[in-house]
Sequence to fold (835 residues):
Amino acid sequence: MAVGFISFAMFKFMGDPVENMLGQEATLADKAELEERLGLNDPIIVQYFRFLERALSGDFGVSYRAGLPVGELILDRLPATLELALLSGVIAISLGFVLGVYTAIRRDGIAAHFIMTASLVGVSLPTFLIGVFLIWLFAVNLGWLPAFGRGETRSLFGVDLAILTWNGFKSMILPAVTLGLYQMTLIMRLVRSEMLEVLRTDYIRFARARGLSQKTVNFGHAMKNTLVPVITVTGLQFGSIVAFAIITESVFQWPGVGLLFINAVSFVDIPVMSAYLLLVAVIFVTINLIVDLLYFTIDPRLSVSKN
Amino acid sequence: MTKTFLKLTAASLALCAGLSAANAETLRWARAGDSLTLDPHAQNEGPTHALAHQMYEPLLQRDMEAKIIPALATSWEPTEDPNVWEFKLREGVKFHGGQDFTADDVVFSLKRAMMPTSAMKELLASVKDVRKVDDLTVQIETTGPNPLLPNNLTNLFIMDADWTLENGCEAPQDIANGGDNPCVRSVNGTGAFVLDSRKQDSKTVLKQNENYWGKGEFPMEVTEIIYTPIQEGATRVAALLSGEVDLIQDVPVQDLARVGETDGLKLNTAPQNRTIFFGMNLGADDLTSDTVDGKNPLADKRVREAMNIAINRDAIKKVVMREQSAPTGVIMPPFVNGWTEALDAYPEYDVAKAKALMEEAGYGDGFGLTLNCPNDRYINDEAICQAAVGMLGQIGIKVNLDAKPKAQHFPLITNRETDFYMLGWGVPTFDSEYIFNFLVHTTDDKYGSWNGTGFSNADIDAKIKSLASETDAEVRNATIGEIWDTAKAETLYLPIHNQVLNWGMKDNVDFPVQPEDQPHFKFLTFKK
Fold:
């Protein structure tokens, strides 16, 4: 609700959709007429409640830009964004975890130092630059991977997915890496510091003293206890992967909701923008809920029944 | 034995080569924006028309040199009644769905384009009626004589009346009422290509129309078009460099050299139908954004002249545009009717003279002013404005630059909320009247919607109105000349340059740049 209202108040400052819709030949009378028909002259509150009333019945209106129902547009684009976010999330979590644990265990090794230094690049370079650099290297110079687009898709339960075809999977690699790089380095650094923290605790020393193998100590005892904070951050990060896919999607021309949103912004396509922001809010709330529920399965101490 | 074997191999190789040449020639095409809708009357926008032109056809169209050529009409001329034009239609044309093309379709389509929800209605504002004479003759009646009617028809596409009605889209889509119809998603035209599949912002595939009437008349070497919009300039160029696409429009200025120098790629260049200029609010008694109280410095012709000669157009071309522009002294590109070399000549850059003029006008100490500028509409728009700020600073005008996205910039002009602004103007009718109607005529409910200067001259207005119905070309052109002379003498606008179009493509593609930025792929040929 709050998200919706704030975004509605902001659309007013984004420009005039009528200008884009009518083209340069339009007369002032045409503009006034269209503004009236679209209800843009009504107070923001009225526009907002009209949107809310319709949205509750599942009708998000028609895109000013594409002329198609917004609900359909978003449902059509959502699989592309979600599969990209999932793949990059998987890359970020798995690599971040492995590297994090590795750098924690071998914290004085040369490789660990190298990884830590390289991770600074991942944290500090903007997504846009990373994307363009990867395209330059892998698409233009080496010619291994496509520079843009989603490749071929295959339908699964009526949803078109690129990851199911070889060609589509190849197209996903560069955007997924670009999108996941920041999260990966973040997770890696988090896992490393948590792990170092845990490794210093008494029960790890006792475990070692009991003569348990290094492997059991590191992975059975230490790693498991680093999970809770890592899951919190990872969960929140997944939300931002979906939300920040905007930049990656526009660099790689990935036809997801992020690209839809950025086009909507430049066209002042109010129905699409409001529906997108609502969707992002819903995704964040859902993810937070899932994360909270996950705590209980990972950390039995949090379980209510134990109390 | 070996010899026969070799011969056989050679023969089979030749056969293979012959086969592949006759086989599908796919062209992969990319540009920055995607078409907005497949409904041919729902948006009046370049990329939308560019895609529609491959599948739908107007009565007459502009070819790759922007000359008008027959499309669905074979001939057209005014009748004895000067208000009526008669069009003879092409015989034996079929729509993609197999329906015959007749006069009924033309009448239906033009009337559809005149409906309130159509984005094309302004181009037909002078049309009173469209009627069928016989199956292959149509008459268009205008409210007064309209010598330029054919120029207005080059983007008005003809749909099949029955198909459109069956699909329930007799009117162009009404976005306000949430209307959604099949004409936004599917195509039934007469054009050289048939829609195969489309995903917006992602990929559109077109296949050659096997039954196209123009086979033999046009090269028609492309059998399949794969169109992928790529918004990001760097990615678009990368796709061309890596060989993933064959042709790109909108090559970013900073990458031109790179595309031109790469083996296997080439760059085709042509002046674009778009002039970039600054407008000044010279009509108001006082400006809101300036530092002068009680009067309007821009109302003084000497100030405007000073600004005009203080702008170094050659420097903008060299530094900001990297040689990719044609500086000009008039707000009209060269192929527009009314253009002369004398008008195009731009004043010499002369700071001393400009300062003297400022002194003479009583603004020797200069003044402050806000310049409104778009930052995502024209090639290097914001950078041009920044350059102008520096140049005007030299004669004491302290310009405060306010650069905004186009969606926020253009309403400032149409709502008259800016005193000094950048605007670019293309001329779809290729005639000066179009420029006058929108940019020179006094603002009222039909004319002057983009004239943010506040310029108003009853004499000029009368002359502009007379152009619409003047059928004697000589008289008409003389009037056009007079209007331009006044506009130039008044320094009504500060012209900067005409934009230059660049298309990057593979060496084996033979395709000139079209001045409207509209590729018509039926003209494209491949080098053998």
